[in-house]
Amino acid sequence: MAEDKKVWYVLRAISGKEAKVKEVLDASIKNTDLGRFVSQVLIPTEKVYTTRNGKKVTKERTLYSGYVFVKADLTGEVEYELRNTTNVIDFLRGREKGSKPESLRESEVMRMLGTADEMQQNPEEAGDRYLVGEPVKVTVGPFSGFSGVIKEVNNEKKKIKVEVKIFGRPTDLELENSQVERE
């Protein structure tokens, strides 16, 4: 089947079951004739960093909950096959009754994929950047609750040097960005 006839469609899936839908569709593409009509199944995700028990944890979060993106040529029974996949509700369609599944423009998909890639490559947010002289409060570790002023910033290692007063004396602490918050 010619690649140029395939366009992007959006399948509405049960929220939280997107990965299962992708797994079932990938297996169908590999094992049946569906592979001739469907070239790609995609669930855009982003990496989310959280702190749990003092450790930085990376988790993948679905960017569009309840949606699975499919690059397909909807000829013959393909629409029926995709719509009747386990955990799929229907295609994203227009408001009129009996309307055809709406396709996405290639530019929309590329922009969406670009932002998803950007988030994975550049996970630090503008809020993660600290400046020298900025007041911060230590939130994790043995010095939790102490307030101080940033003396040095290392963005590559995501570490900062904070001067806190312990028993009235200035003491320098080297901490990770995730161990402090702005005051």
Describe what this molecule looks like in 3D.
- The chain is of the alpha+beta class.
- Helices cover 22% and strands 39% of the residues.
- The protein has four helices and twelve strands.
- The chain has helices at residues 18-31, 34-37, 78-83, 106-121, and strands at residues 7-13, 38-42, 45-52, 55-62, 67-72, 88-91, 103-104, 135-138, 147-154, 159-166, 169-176, 180-182.
- The strands form three sheets. Strands 1, 2, 5, 6 and 7 form a five-stranded antiparallel sheet that branches. A five-stranded antiparallel sheet has the order 11-10-9-8-12, with no helix packed on it. Strands 3-4 form a two-stranded antiparallel ribbon.
- A hairpin with an 8-residue loop joins strand 8 and strand 9 (147-154).
- The longest helix is centred in the middle third of the chain and has 16 residues, at 106-121.
